[in-house]
Design a protein that fits this description.
Blueprint: H1 21-39, H2 48-61, E1 71-76, E2 80-85, H3 87-113, H4 118-134, H5 141-160, H6 166-196, H7 201-209, H8 216-233, H9 243-249, H10 252-277, H11 282-305, H12 314-340, H13 346-373, H14 385-388, H15 390-404, H16 410-425, H17 429-453, H18 467-485, H19 488-491
Antiparallel strand pairs: 1-2
Helix pairs in contact: 1-2, 1-4, 2-3, 2-4, 3-4, 3-10, 3-13, 3-18, 4-5, 5-6, 5-10, 6-7, 6-8, 6-9, 7-10, 8-10, 9-10, 9-12, 10-12, 10-13, 11-12, 11-17, 12-13, 12-16, 12-17, 13-15, 13-16, 13-18, 15-16, 15-17, 15-18, 16-17
Length: 499
């Protein structure tokens, strides 16, 4: 038997280490934290948090040399590349690593106050962040699924680390829903591979164009199942049922991380699969995503509107339902990309996701602060927050106004306008009308929560916050203010090409 491989030299790949540096640094820091946890005495394990923060900051800095041109690695002749650091990848890597960094800063006080196992917590958070940084650069279905599971699997354990009885239940619901989503998605991907003979996204798109008639039902079923799997990951209705219980049962910084970084990973994967792999079926998945967007934003806003002020974990639950509604807004430009037959509208999703990520993590940061003294974290617990902690109250008010799209949260308004324009330009006027109605509905619960902050308080004793938590809230608020003054820093991605 002749085992020789023709042109064997073509199988030897050169790795672009600079291109893969962001996820590699996050993963390397995770291993370093795990090793340090084994070697350091108990009294020195408080250093693990700052070590994790430094690792995420280093991963963010590694994005700077990648700006300006597209870099690809893990390439084979006639098969394409498995990893590409282009504008799309860099934008989502900025969101993933920046969101993970803010969540890590918020976690320093939480890990100490709730006596969470530091080594496990920081290792899991960094591992998930590494997967989130890898996923936007994946250009084949195998790498994409592996990256998505690297994001998800540590997240289950992070949710379960809270030892008050709710963490285990929340983690179980999260785990079961995610496993079902992954199984459905893998079945769809296997159908696409059987129909097109490739896992590379560009090759899948080319294969779908000239597909024989007998294979078209298989490919269409595969595309539908893959989209259903991603709908679980982004918490689109009707696959959103795990969100409120999971967020309420997790440590608050973990809930914030899931609402931003976990959701961003799902949207990045969904955008890659639809805009690159399923491009020939644009009008089909465009209509499906448009319907999902309308139903998701409506269900999320309606549920948030009905949230009671005296229910336990009501603040976190309201943010959870708000994140479901925000997922509907983020789906609008994806649907527009299908109708337009071009990935250009995806810039609106990227811009809105960056804005939403910053202000939503800031809101979760204030929730973590209030939860330190009021563990039930009811909406009523925020009554008179301005009298107890003016800085936190003003920051939360600004974050909520940004989410609502009201001045002075101008950046939130610009983000919504960009999404509206993407829908109208693609001929989805009915979806723009649905979004406008939902924005008005959302004003009610955002303004109601904002008003609570400035009402007279029964207990006006000042609340002290840890330095790290205060600094993080200040950083998030400053970032939101800067973007409100100069929104072009984010909105410029709308005008450029992402791929």
């Amino acid at each position: 038997m002749n085992l020789a491989v023709p042109h064997a030299g073509s199988l030897i790949q050169s790795v672009d280490w600079a291109a893969i540096a962001p996820p590699l640094i996050a993963a390397g820091t995770a291993l370093l934290v795990l090793l340090a946890d084994l070697l350091l005495p108990e009294s020195r394990k408080r250093l693990l948090g700052p070590l994790g923060v430094l690792g995420l900051a280093g991963a963010l800095l590694a994005l700077l040399p990648l700006t300006g041109r597209t870099r690809s690695t893990f390439c084979l002749p006639d098969s394409g590349c498995s990893y590409t650091a282009d504008h799309f990848a860099l934008a989502f890597q900025l969101l993933a690593l920046g969101g993970a960094l803010i969540a890590a800063l918020l976690s320093i006080a939480t890990v100490r106050d709730e006596e969470l196992p530091a080594g496990e917590y920081w290792f899991l958070l960094l591992s998930s962040a590494a997967g989130a940084a890898l996923l936007p650069a994946a250009r084949d279905l195998a790498t994409l699924v592996v990256a998505l599971e690297v994001v998800s699997l540590p997240s289950f354990a992070l949710v379960a680390l809270k030892r008050d009885g709710r963490g285990g239940e929340a983690a179980l619901k999260f785990f079961l829903s995610s496993v079902v989503a992954t199984a459905v998605m893998l079945l769809g991907i296997s159908f696409l591979y059987a129909a097109t003979g490739s896992l590379q996204l560009e090759a899948v798109a080319r294969g779908l164009v000239g597909l024989p008639g007998q294979l078209k039902p298989l490919a269409e079923a595969g595309a539908m199942l893959a989209l259903v799997g991603f709908a679980f990951k982004v918490a689109a209705v009707p696959f959103h049922f795990w969100v409120p219980d999971t967020y309420a049962g997790a440590p608050v910084p973990v809930a914030g991380y899931l609402s931003v970084v976990g959701k961003a990973s799902g949207f990045a994967g969904l955008a890659l699969v639809t805009s690159l792999g399923l491009r020939p079926y644009g009008h089909t998945w465009g209509l499906l995503l448009a319907v999902l967007a309308a139903v998701t934003m409506t269900a999320g806003n309606t549920a948030a509107l009905r949230q009671r002020a005296d229910s336990a974990q009501g603040a976190v639950r309201l943010l959870a339902w708000s994140s479901v509604a925000q997922a509907g807004y983020l789906l609008v430009p994806l649907a527009a990309a299908g109708y337009a037959g071009s990935p250009h509208p995806l810039g609106a999703t990227v811009a809105y996701a960056l804005i939403y990520g910053l202000v939503n993590l800031g809101a979760f940061g204030v929730a973590a602060l209030v939860g330190r003294s009021r563990s039930a974290n009811r909406l009523d617990d925020y009554r008179g927050l301005f009298a107890r902690n003016r800085g936190a109250a003003l920051a939360l008010a600004f974050f909520l106004l940004c989410l609502a799209g009201l001045p002075p949260g101008v950046v939130g308004l610009f983000g919504k306008v960009v999404v509206f324009r993407a829908a109208v330009d693609a001929g989805l006027g009915w979806l723009a009308v649905v979004m406008a109605v939902n924005v008005v509905i959302a004003l009610s619960y955002y303004l109601r929560w904002t008003a609570l902050l400035f009402r007279p308080a029964e207990d006006a004793r000042p609340e002290r916050a840890p330095a790290a938590l205060t600094a993080t809230l200040g950083l998030a608020a400053a970032g939101a203010v800067v973007l409100s003054v100069a929104p072009q820093l984010v909105l410029q991605v709308v005008s450029g090409s992402l791929f």
